[in-house]
């Protein structure tokens, strides 16, 4: 059987353990289930608002990436691969972090600041790829995005050079102090999980840093705000939701960030409740 060129590339990458997905023109992901053909649901997994996706699991963007050849070649994906403009992958799922340098000035900064690693030329700059994962973040400095967990990046080429270990200098770019100047959420009427398991937090700082990174991810989202809020809530709850350490204050910080991006209190509550349901909390 002859596969479309992008699907052949995807299958080759998947065989090497790289989770992949098709992208439409404009670097926009497809849905990967019949209900989401042609992105009919608007690309908002689990959000039970107008036009929301009712899939059983997240199926858009980074969450659609897979190494399963049966999924990649399934009928649900056939149209996507025929119309795909390029192949993307989930860096975090592949165990790497991509520092996306979007212009020559950013490349110059990286060469002067960061340890040398494998590099891939892009249309306007370079991808610097490090071994290891971290939370993704946009606009950590002018022309610089970080794509790792809960993000996707275009597959452009294998790249040149040896892949270095993810340095603290890159991790530090994604850590910001939470803002205290924003207005508090209008309401907070969502359940906070109680203690259900052993606490694995090394120190209270571990939880605080996780919340700060989650706030940052929501704050710096440029598009797909509904999906970003839901996926961020899901990530927070999957890491911190089973031991009873989350408090109303932590949730309020997340809701504040979401409402500052235009989400209503109801949207925030729906996203939080859907994340709890998905994780069985």
Summarize the structure in words:
It is a single chain. By secondary structure, this protein is an alpha+beta fold. The protein has 3 domains: 5-89, no CATH class; 92-166, no CATH class; 204-279, no CATH class. Helices cover 36% and strands 14% of the residues. The chain has 9 helices and 10 strands. A hairpin with a 2-residue loop joins strand 7 (137-141) and strand 8 (144-147). The longest helix has 16 residues, at 204-219. Residues 44-52 and 177-188 have low confidence and may be disordered.
Gyration radius, rounded: 19 Å
Order of helices and strands: HEEHHEEHEEEEEEHHHHH
Number of helices: 9
Low-confidence stretches: 44-52, 177-188
The figure for the number of domains is 3
Count the E strands.
Answer: 10
Report the biggest beta sheet as strand number plus sense, adding barrel if it closes. Answer: 6 strands, mixed
User: Quick check: average pLDDT?
Assistant: 80
Helix content: 25-40%
Strand content: 5-15%
Q: What is the oligomeric state here?
A: single chain
Distance between the first and last residues' Cα: 44 Å
Overall form: globular
Question: Which structural class should the secondary elements be placed in?
Answer: alpha+beta
């Amino acid at each position: 059987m002859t596969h479309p060129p992008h699907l052949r590339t995807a299958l080759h990458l998947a065989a090497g353990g790289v989770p992949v997905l098709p992208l439409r023109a404009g670097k926009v992901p497809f849905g990967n289930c019949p209900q989401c053909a042609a992105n009919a649901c608007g690309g908002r997994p689990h959000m039970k608002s107008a036009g929301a996706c009712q899939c059983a699991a997240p199926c858009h963007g980074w969450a659609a990436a897979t190494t399963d050849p049966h999924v990649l070649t399934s009928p649900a994906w056939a149209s996507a691969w025929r119309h795909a403009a390029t192949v993307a992958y989930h860096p975090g799922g592949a165990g790497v972090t991509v520092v996306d340098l979007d212009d020559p000035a950013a490349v110059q900064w990286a060469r002067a600041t960061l340890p040398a690693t494998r590099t891939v030329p892009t249309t306007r700059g370079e991808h610097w790829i490090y071994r290891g994962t971290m939370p993704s973040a946009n606009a950590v400095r002018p022309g610089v995005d970080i794509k790792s967990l809960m993000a996707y990046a275009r597959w452009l080429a294998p790249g040149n050079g040896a892949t270095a270990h993810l340095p603290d200098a890159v991790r530090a770019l994604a850590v910001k102090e939470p803002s205290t100047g924003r207005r508090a959420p209008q309401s907070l009427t969502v359940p906070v999980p109680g203690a259900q398991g052993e606490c694995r937090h090394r120190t209270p700082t571990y939880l605080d840093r996780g919340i700060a990174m989650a706030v940052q991810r929501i704050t710096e989202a440029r598009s797909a705000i509904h999906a970003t809020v839901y996926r961020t809530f899901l990530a927070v709850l999957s890491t911190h939701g089973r031991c009873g350490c989350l408090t109303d204050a932590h949730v309020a910080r997340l809701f504040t960030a979401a409402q500052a991006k235009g989400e209503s209190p109801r949207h925030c509550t729906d996203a939080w409740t859907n994340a709890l349901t998905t994780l069985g909390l």
